[in-house]
Design brief:
homodimer; seven-stranded antiparallel β-sheet; 1 helix
Chain lengths: 121, 121
């Protein structure tokens, strides 16, 4: 065995692409993914699962059809399954996303921002 | 709807007991629990699930039979299912634990440190 702590900052320093999730750990069939975000993502939903956002550094918003959640470092939000949402960040924001293995970042809509899945860092 | 960010520090300020997990959110059948820990916990394992520790403030150790993981704020570790472990912290440490709903903090051993489950804050 060679158990080791996973340091968010060290892992975040290893990549720079926006909207490109990097897996850092798995718990049962769930994955922990670091993501650097900036600008507007696409409207989408995940029909089969909730999706957790934890902000590690910076600020972001998750926009819903009729409201908006503002998130800063040290805050989290769980987007319920099936609910349309659009993440965005005016400046670069660093987040930890937790969701089942295999969930695609653009959910039901696809498009240019669809990231390759299951890339580890 | 009244979606709201969950602020770790605000929630942590609402209780002071050690080794007494408080649920702050759910994602599918998983729970996010804040815990303030200090001193030594009991050796135990969770035969049916992995268990995630994220350190929010302070430092902790997770001791295994043949090694130890040191964790500081901004670091995480996933304890594999079935592996005996003992969390400890010399000074108060504030952590976020993620695991399936219904998991008992003392796992397979029980005892005085067994906390009531599913207490929200």
């Amino acid at each position: 065995m060679a158990y080791q702590a996973i340091n968010f900052k060290e892992k975040l320093d290893l990549f720079s692409e926006h909207w490109s999730p990097r897996v850092i750990a798995e718990m049962n069939d769930y994955q922990f993914k670091l993501v650097k975000i900036q600008g507007q993502f696409v409207w989408h939903k995940h029909p089969d699962t909730d999706e957790t956002f934890i902000v590690l550094a910076g600020e972001m918003q998750i926009v819903f059809k009729e409201e908006q959640v503002d998130l800063a470092a040290g805050e989290m939000f769980v987007v319920p399954r099936g609910v349309e949402h659009k993440p965005l960040a005016a400046k670069e924001c660093r987040i930890l996303v937790i969701e089942p293995r295999g969930v695609v970042n653009t959910g039901d809509v696809g498009g240019d921002l669809t990231a390759e899945n299951d890339i580890w860092v």
